What does this fold into?
Amino acid sequence: MKVGIVTFTFGDNYGQRLQNYAVQELLQRRGADASTIRQSEPRCSLKHQVKVFLVDSFAGKRGAKRARHSAFLRFDEEHIKYEPNYSLPDFPPRKSDGFDAFVAGSDQIWSPYIPDSNGAMFLCFAESVKRVSLSASISAPELPMAKKSAYRERLAAFDFISVREKNAARLIKECAGLDAEVLIDPTLMLDAADWDKLAEAPAALLPRRYALKYFLGSDSPKVAMFDEYCKRAGLEVVDLLGDPRFFACGPSEFIYLIRNSSLVATDSYHGSIFTLLYRKPLLMFERAGSQFDMSDRFDTLAEKLGLGNWREANWNYLESGEPKSFDVEDKLRIERAKFDSFLNRSLFSKSRKEIVYHG
It folds into this structure.
């Protein structure tokens, strides 16, 4: 069975690349010939290129950024199987005849605010084969009115739909009248032993005991509390994006840094996931400085894995004790079974269309 994976492939993003690997691995374990359809490199204006150059130069990250990109290219070469010759969004419909199915997901491929979230991410080119979404994310509180018609038409062409967040299922029901199953992120389908096979130590020397700091948004005011706790606990802080030595890390080093940490503080969804998989103490921050509310993915993750109120969890430990890790194994076992069931029904059975329209 030949299956094409459609997701974001451009950009050096840890979660993006590791969820891509997880989907590929899950399909290959079931005997599928799975490959990812690569994105074409987006065109950037000269003004944008100059701005990036100046910002990186000022932050002293130009060299680290090149090293980081090289690390991602190396990871791709070693671990991601790409479909040769064709790329998105210009994948020719006639080429899809050589596939048995296409999988859209995971990641924020259906966000109405990301330019790369185009018709290709809805598998519009796959006219004659099975179309499945796997833990796709809309990552927006609402769909813009101007885009609802396109979403309705594109979603109706799917045979099976699963999403990553409860809010995405609500938006699809309201917009297209379709039921979408809510599943965990594909990275949670592999256990720590699976990810250990990819882990590599970074080139930079690590402290013996350290707390990993990984923020994609602006620093939360609570970061000061975290920094003070680390001083009291004798933990050095490794700033993954703020320190050029570690900014250069690729996906394999990212896994290693989490696995060997004593504590992780992050506003990253996948940073939180890998911390949970490795049973490390976790401080989950709301994303600060973001234009859109991204908390639904954390809310759904917390509900599915029994994390309680993630906005408050662990913070009292910073003042009176030690942060704790979360025991998610029992809940994770249930969610993995749901994911397996969906994957088997959607791709590895003779069933062609499961989604039901509720007009």
Remarks:
- The chain has two domains: 2-189+334-347, 201-326.
- DSSP finds 13 helices and eleven strands in the chain.
- The first strand starts at residue 2 and ends at 6.
